[in-house]
Structures are given as structure tokens and as C-alpha cells.
Amino acid sequence: MLPSFVDFTMRTRLVAGPGLVRELATELAGYERVLVISDAQLVKLGLVREVTEPLEAAGVDVVGVFSDVPPNSEVEVVMAGAGFARARQYDALVAVGGGSVIDTAKAINMVVATGQHLLDLQGLGVLDEPLGTLVAIPTTAGTGSEVTSHAVIKDAGTSAKLTFTSPHLAPDLAVIDPVMTRDLPPKLAASTGMDALTHAVEAYLSTNANPFTDALALEATRLIAQNFRRAVRERDEESRYGMLVASSLAGAAFNVALVGCVHAMAHACGGLYDVPHGVANAILLPWGLEFNREVAAERVDELGRAFGVEDGRQFIEAVSSLAAEGGLPTRLSEVGVPREGLEAVAEAAAVDGAVFTNPREAGAEDLLKLLERAF
Amino acid sequence: MLPSFVDFTMRTRLVAGPGLVRELATELAGYERVLVISDAQLVKLGLVREVTEPLEAAGVDVVGVFSDVPPNSEVEVVMAGAGFARARQYDALVAVGGGSVIDTAKAINMVVATGQHLLDLQGLGVLDEPLGTLVAIPTTAGTGSEVTSHAVIKDAGTSAKLTFTSPHLAPDLAVIDPVMTRDLPPKLAASTGMDALTHAVEAYLSTNANPFTDALALEATRLIAQNFRRAVRERDEESRYGMLVASSLAGAAFNVALVGCVHAMAHACGGLYDVPHGVANAILLPWGLEFNREVAAERVDELGRAFGVEDGRQFIEAVSSLAAEGGLPTRLSEVGVPREGLEAVAEAAAVDGAVFTNPREAGAEDLLKLLERAF
Amino acid sequence: MGVFKDAAELYECIGGLFRRGAEHPEMGPKIRASKLIIKFQYTNPEAQLTIDAKNPPPEGMYFNVIEGENDLQADVTMSMEADVAHKFWFGKLNLVMALNRGMMRAKGPIAAILKLLPSIKPAYELYPQYLREIGKEDKIMG
Amino acid sequence: MGVFKDAAELYECIGGLFRRGAEHPEMGPKIRASKLIIKFQYTNPEAQLTIDAKNPPPEGMYFNVIEGENDLQADVTMSMEADVAHKFWFGKLNLVMALNRGMMRAKGPIAAILKLLPSIKPAYELYPQYLREIGKEDKIMG
Predict the structure, then answer these.
(1) For residues B248 and B241, what is the distance between their CA atoms, to the nearest angstrom?
(2) Range with the poorest average pLDDT among B336-340, C84-88, D16-20, D118-122
(3) Residue B7 touches chain D, beta carbons under 8 Å
(4) Local structure of A102: helix, strand or coil
(5) How many CB atoms lie within 10 A of CB C9?
(6) Confidence band of A179 (pLDDT split at 50, 70, 90)
(7) What's chain D's average pLDDT?
(8) Is residue C24 part of a domain?
(9) Assigned domain for C137 exists
(10) Contact residues of C toward B, CB < 8 A
(11) Which domain holds residue C104?
């Protein structure tokens, strides 16, 4: 049965290939001055140089590198980045980094184009006009932000995670190249990989899912099954490439289908106890699957088949062992969430936007039960 | 193994749902004056009114309906349509029709925006700037033109089919509603449906295929297997909806992956002997599959599994019987291609653009053998 | 054309629903607790309703309902066609989907609005009931 | 930087290849038969080569190869970076993909160009051979 309403687009043009960052100038033909957004660690590792050197060799000016983006970007960082950008002349922004860097670049792009403060740009459908050209080059295989129209930025004052959504936020170009994840530490490869898998799974189970998002989510699941272990342990180019493509596929799926209760709980664990997003997803995904299987058994089976196992039950087991093999914690008690905090996590998760597209209605009590099991 | 270069985008925003054309004004919020491109038959059947009445009820002006598009549109029709459009003030073009109508609207959009003659706009990457807003509402489930960046227009003078390709040609919005195929005669439902299946199959086997296009092509194949027979025989809303969504999925896949030798031969049969495109595809698809299975056995098996059969061999049989059950001719000899014309068809197909992305190298001699078998 | 012939009718129907909500023993306190000022901008017909749960409400109500333009600083502004709003209050519109489809635009912290969603569920029964009471059965969606 | 230091070097290498092609017993007649005028616009360095298979060719050649600007009316104009052209003539670039990726732009009937593709295959061997002959081994792609 098809859903009564289907909606899909992927505004971002994605190009992927080993060594592709060296050809960025070709993809950016017509652009002469780019401004790079990144973080200090990536500058240190030489990954920013992997992008800027070939650009400069091809005659494109790199007019500045804003490398002050922290792991969870904040409103003030965005405003500082916008100031940095305004002081320079450029015709394209190039984000080199993980989700935080890419989201920051989206936000900077929005602040510069509208002339407004970031806090005044929260919402859905706030932007009327296209923004400046934005290129996203991910250095983790997880967030999918390189192809989504969402950005999440923290308000340091209130600790709230602010959400920005607009079709105009989607990068114009995403460049996927495994060279950019060559230095990814195994734990980060594992946690970001579990984030990508969670995107695929929750997009597929979402009440907003449709044949376009289903197709991409299943393909992402397939690629993750084939590449996750090697990308964490052997870190060879082929498996890292596979994980990056999988992450973008999952991003394109959840960008439209949205996510579900696992993300709702992970957001709450992150907001209240600073649990890294991928780690929280890895811990909670099996429990969320168990919970949703009650109403979506066939779909969980289908995910299992895409993953290369026989059914949904085996899939849940496979997901658990994947996270464990990736060296990730498997219990909330291991990552600093106190038992007495579970109720607050459940309350916050029950009103998180993600919970509204979960296939099974999930109130605070339901979520508390899941959190207790995952504790 | 992932391809060494992956490329994907779907610029068009697609929305689909039964009854959705009645809500077009919601999707077009901010637009006040639309110009409709269609054909006389669709006007007569009242399908154009299905679109225009709710628009007008919602206060959107329909400033004109250009309904002179023939089944295989021509350069002069486009230029006349562009003249018609220039004489009116509008802020969006709405194409209501099959592939010929949608391609004509793309071409009119291009001529109006650039001020050039259509013949001067042939090529790839010719357009530098976005065109005006274009909405495509398909009335057949086959061409996928509502989501592609291609247009094919006939040059009546030379009988050549001219190809126009640019990301800017892709419609901004595709509106998929099964009400629009309610009057589709069974034979046309069958031939256009086989066209959609051929898009999915050839995109999946193309040398340009990638995980994004693979995912969409397999999902299209799945939906066609589920809906084709019913959409032809019972013509119920659900199966017509399924075929329309499948056709758009296949369109999004082949828009990037392109097609193969079946299309190359079908183009030649159409150009030389006026064989309708979907009919030619239906006749030739099993033979093309047989030919390509030599180098892509696993992929043909995978298509078979998506179709709901066990392997590639069964898939080829299923494809043959599907066309026959749809009441379509199964031999070139039945559709006006003379035996002595096969060589010319093979020669033309061997230099058709589509043949360059076929997984197995296909010269004129190879194609001639296939055409003889299909004769 | 649209469901409401003019702003007055919209104020009578949706405004009336909001006033009922402000007196509702379940919904009232929950919306009050949000301390939000939410503006609803309608088109076709043009109209504006404001829920003010920040300033002190009138006697017997948990929050203020204001018709027409005003100078209050909204935390969240929701913009939509009046028909979309009408549909929404029957529980017949998925808010997340409506926002994604661009049928509604939200300016401000959306999370704050989503948090209220579970609280306003009683309104979906209240709306048809209220329309019947005021003799507007013709507007009830099946 | 790029493969060719200036237009003169590009004319020597790619222009030279074209002139060899114009004498080639296999490629020459096939291109001649197309009767096309094809302009190649290069950037980095800026340069232009024209294959004119419409007007009578010089003695011993099947078509004209013209360096630099000219007033001929091209049937097809191909625009690309000089480095992309260099790569193409080693057979290392899928034309369809290059066109899709925007690495090459083609103005005019693309079908006419695609039809020539099978005919020009010998050029992919000829190019490195020719570069070696003129002492430009350093430009040969592995």
C-alpha cells in the first residue's frame, strides 16, 4: 500500500568518488573565490589542505578558512562565522567537516544572505529566497547533513538545540571522498556509522516514509551491512567510501521521511547528559526497533533482509552486536546517564519533534520503559 | 563494489497522492497566474479542467491553455507555444499531459527564458540560468519526464529527434495524481507501463548506475510488478497510483543513470518506422535483457528478485508475458518494421546516445542479431 | 471558495474554539504553562489570532485570545491558509507533514509548538462539537 | 598547473593530433562524411580548435584543422578545460559522464557528436604515440 501522500526531492547534487576532492575546481567551474568553514582539528590533520591545495592549484582563491567550529556548534559561533564571512568577498562557501561544521556553514549562509540574527531565523519555511552557493564535504560518515535541509545549532544560553529547516538550507553540492575520513578514529567511525544506520532504519519505519525514501533507506542499510565492520577495523578506502555513500543515502531518506523515537531519546540524552549523538543512537536503536516491531513487523523484517539476515528479530540482534563490535558502549549507565535522570529524558523525548513520525505512538511512559531497558 | 564515480540529484520536488491536483493551489502558494500546456484530447476528456477548476476556485488565474501539442512534439509547435506564452503574463507554466506535452513545456520554458530559437538551444550544459517555474502533471505512467532534465523534440524538417539536456530543464514540481490517468486506454497503459519498466531496468544495468539510481530503479521494478496488470485491466485508482509513482521513480533513476541498448533500438524504430516508443521498448526489452545478462547476470537476477521472481531467467520470461498480457504486440514484424529495414535500425541504434551506457558493448552487428530475434 | 466567508466568520469559528480551549480544564493549564505568545496569521480570508499565555489572562480563562493585529512580541508565528487551519482543528492534518509541505510556515522555535501538540488533542473533538453549537454544522468535515 | 603551458603548446599537442587524424585512413573519411564543423573551445589555456569537414580540405587531408578564432558557423561547439580535453584523447574520459558532470558543454546536436565516437577510437592510441614522437613524453597519462 502506498501512502496517501508522497513527497520527495533531493536538491543537493551529490558527487562521490575516491580522490574527488582533488577535482573540486572542476565541479566549481565558474567560481573564483571560496570561503572554507571547518574546525581546528581538521586543519591540523591536513584534511582542509586536501581540499584547498588543489583548488588553489586550479586558480580558485581560498579567501579564508573559518576553523573555530566546536563539536556541537553554537549560536555565537555561527554569528562569529557570519562576521568572518561578511568581511571577505567570496562566491561559494565550502564546509569541510562533520555534521557540526556543515550545519554551521548552513547557518552562516542563512545569516549572511538574510542579514538577520540566527535566533530570528528559527522555524520552518522562514526563507523565501535561495541562499549563496554552499558545498559540503563530509569528514564523517554519519550525519547526512551534506544532503539535508536541516541544521541544528545549540543556544549556549538556554542549552536548547535550535532547529532550522528550509529547502534553501540544503547544500548545492555534496562532495563525497573517502580520503576525507582516512583519519577517523575507530570509535568515531563506529558511532557515526551507527548514526547513519539509525537514520536509515528510522526513515524506513517513519510514518512519513514513501517509496523514494524507502528505496534509499534500504540501500543505505545494505551498504552499512557490507562496510561497517571493515570501515571501523581495517579502515580501507573501499569500506570508508561505502560508509560515506551509505550515510548520504540515509541522509537523503530521512531528510524527507524524518526519524522516530530513537532519535527523540538520543536528542534528550544529548541535551540533558551530553551523550554523543551516535553513541546514544547505537545504544537505543535495538530497543526502539523492538518497540516498533509490534506495529511494523514486516518492515523490520525487510530491513533485516536488506542487512543480510533473515528477519527482524535477527536484525535487532545484528544491530546490537554491530555496535558492540564497534567498541561502543551498549548501556546508558556506561555513558553518564543516571538512573534517576531517565524520567527527565523520557519527558523530553516525548515532546521531541522526532517522536511525531515514529510508527508507534510513544508517550513518556513508553519511552521510560525503553530507557530503563537500555540503562 | 561501488562505482568510482557516483552522481545524483533530483531537483524536482515530487508530490503524489490521490486527489492531489485539487490541492495544486496550496503547492503553488505565491503564484497568481499560470499558463497551461496540454493537448486537445486531454482538454476534451476534461482532465485539463481537473487541474484548472480547483486552481481558479482558489483564486489563481489560468491565463491561457495551449493545447496544440501533438503526440510527438515538434520544433514548430514549441515555437508556437513560446509565442502563445510570450503574449501572456504568467508566473508558472503547468504541463498537463504525457511525455510529449511535458517535453514541449520544458522547451517552451527554455525558449521564453533565453529568447533564443529552440534549434540554437540543443546540447548539454547550454543553459546558464534557471528558467521560469514549471509544474508537470503526468497523464501517463511511463516517460518519467516530470522528474528528468531531458526533453526530446522532433525536427519535422529532417525527422531528427533533437535532444535537450540541462539541469535547468527539470520541472520544479511534479504533481502525481491517479485521477489524471483515469481515462488511459488499456493499450496505452500497457505500453507506457512497459516504457517505465524499461527505464528502471536499463537504469539499473547502465554503466552509469550508482547506489542512488539502483535503489530507485529496484523500487520502481517492485511497484510495476505489483501494479502493472491491475492498472491495465481493472484500472483501479490504487494500481494507477502505483504505476505513476513507479514511473517517477524510474524517471529519477534513468535521469542520472541513463539507459541502454533497448532504448537505442526503440529510438531507431520510432525514428525510422514510427513505432510507438513504449511498444518498441516492450518488444525489445526481453532481447536486450538476454543480451546484457551475459555480462550482468547478477544484476539481472537482482531485478528478477525485485520483480518477485527467482532469478534473471524467470525475469526475462515475466517481462515477455507482461507485455503480452497487456495486449501489446511482441514482434517487430507486427508493428510495421520490414525485415529489410532491420539493418538500418541497427545502424541508427549503434550510434544512438543510449547505447553508450549499455553494460555490454553493442555494435551494429550485435544489435542486428537482437533485432532479428525480435522480428 | 474557502470555508470562511470573511474574517468575522473565522474569528467566530476558530477564535471561538480558542476561547473554549482557554477555559478547558485540561488544555488550558498546559498551554498556560508554556508561557508562549503564539500568533496565527491566516490568509483567505486575511485574519490574525493570538494566543497569549504570557500575560495575565481574564477571569475564568487560562490564557488570552486576541483577534486581529496587535503589538505583542510573538515567540512563534504560524502562517497558513484559513482552510488549512480549519482542517487542522479537526485533527485531519498531520502538522509535521503540513510544515514539510509548506502548507504551514512556522517562525520561531518549532520545538515549543511540537511540545504542545499532545496537549491540544481534546480540541479535535471540541471543534466539531462547538461548530454544531453555534449552528455551523455545514462546516463540519466528515 | 594545467597540462599545457600556453595555447601554442595545446595547438602543438591536440592540434597536432587533429592533423594526424585528418590524414588517418580510417578516421579521416568517417569524420569527413559527417560534413560537420566542430569547434572546440578550451580554457586554461584559452585556445580554440576547429574541425571543418564541410569545406574542401587541403591536399592529403580529409578535413581542415584550424587554430584560433574564425568566422565559420559551427554545427557543434564543445567547451571544456584543456586538461579535460587532454584526458579525453587518452580515452580516459567517458564522454557521456563528462557531459553529465558538466566537465564538457556541448552546444548543438549532440547526437551528431555521439555518432562520431566509435570512429575516433584510433585516436586514443594515436595521441600518446604522437606525443612521444614530438618529445612530449612527460604529458603521457599512465
Answers:
(1) 11
(2) D118-122
(3) yes
(4) helix
(5) 18
(6) very high
(7) 91
(8) yes
(9) no
(10) 1, 44, 81, 84, 101-103
(11) 7-131
Closest CA relative to residue A116, chosen from A125, A104, A107 = A107
* Residues D62 and D111: beta-carbon distance below 8 Å: no
Return the residue in D3, D79, D81 with the most chain A beta carbons within 10 A, the one to mutate for interface testing. D81
Q: Work out the average pLDDT over B326-341.
A: 96
- Tell me the chain A residues in contact with residue D103 when contact means C-beta distances shorter than 8 Å: 26
Residue among A26, A65, A73 at smallest CA distance from A49: A65
Q: How far apart (Å, rounded) are the C-alpha atoms in residues B250 and D123?
A: 36
- Give the burial string for B320-356 (b: 16+ CB within 10 Å, else e): bebbeebebbbebeebebeeebbebbbebbbbbbbbb
pLDDT of residue D1: 62
pLDDT given at position A74:
95
Q: For a pLDDT cut of 90, what percent of chain B falls above it?
A: 91
A9 with B5: Cβ contact below 8 A: no
pTM of the model: 0.94
Q: How many domains does chain D have?
A: 1
> What is the gyration radius of the CA atoms in chain C, in angstroms?
14
- Flag whether pLDDT at A171 surpasses 90: yes
Split at pLDDT 50, 70, 90, the class of C1 is low
CA–CA distance from D12 to each of B222, C78, D16, D19, D67 (Å)? 55, 66, 5, 10, 10
Q: Scan for cell 454544531, then name that residue.
A: C132
Omega before D45 within 30 of 0, i.e. cis: yes
Which set of grid coordinates corresponds to residue B219?
A: 523500487
Answer whether D touches A (≥3 Cβ pairs < 8 Å).
yes
- Mean pLDDT, rounded, for A236-263: 97
Sign of CA dihedral B319, B322, B326, B332: positive
CA B342 to each of CA B208, B304, C30: distance values in angstroms, whole numbers, following the listed order: 28, 29, 76
The answer on pLDDT for A1 being more than 90 is no
- Domains of chain A plus CATH, in order, are 13-180 (3.40.50.1970), 184-374 (1.20.1090.10)
Tell me the pLDDT tens digit for each residue of A17-58: 999 999 899 889 889 999 999 999 999 999 999 999 999 998
Between chains, do D102 and A27 touch, taking CB under 8 Å as contact?
yes
Listed in sequence order, the DSSP H helices in chain B are: 24-27, 40-44, 47-57, 75-86, 99-114, 186-205, 211-233, 237-257, 261-273, 277-293, 297-307, 312-325, 342-350, 364-374
Chain B residues close to D110, C-beta within 8 Å: 122-124, 163, 165, 353
Contacts A–D by Cβ distance under 8 A:
14
To which residue does cell 526497533 refer?
A289
A59 contacts in chain D (CB < 8 Å)? 1, 44
Q: What is the CATH number of the domain that holds C64?
A: 3.30.1050.10
Asked if the structure places residue D124 within a domain, the reply is: yes
Q: Which residues make Cβ contacts (< 8 Å) with residue A16, sequence separation at least 6?
A: A175, A176, A177, A241, A244, A245, A248, B2, B5, B6, B7, B210
Q: Rounded mean pLDDT of A243-256?
A: 98
Verify whether the Cβ–Cβ distance A352 to C96 is below 8 Å. no
Q: Are strands D76-81 and D37-43 parallel, antiparallel or unpaired?
A: parallel
Q: Sign (positive/negative) of CA torsion A16, A21, A26, A29?
A: positive
Task: Give, in order, the Cα–Cα distances in Å from A159 to each of A78, A190, A332, A354.
Answer: 15, 27, 21, 18
Which residues in chain B are closer than 8 Å to C84, comparing Cβ atoms?
26
Q: In this structure, are residues B224 and B200 in contact, taking their beta carbons and an 8 Å threshold?
A: yes
Tell me whether the omega of the peptide bond preceding residue C45 falls within 30 degrees of 0, making it cis: yes
Cβ-defined contact of D100 to B124 (cutoff 8 Å): yes
ipTM (interface predicted TM): 0.92
- Specify the pLDDT at position C102: 80
Q: Which of residues 245-264 of A touch B (CB under 8 A)?
A: 245-246, 249, 252
The answer to whether the Cβ–Cβ distance between D84 and A26 falls below 8 Å is yes
| In the predicted structure, residue D86 carries a pLDDT above the cut 80 | yes
Is residue D42 included in any domain, yes or no?
Answer: yes
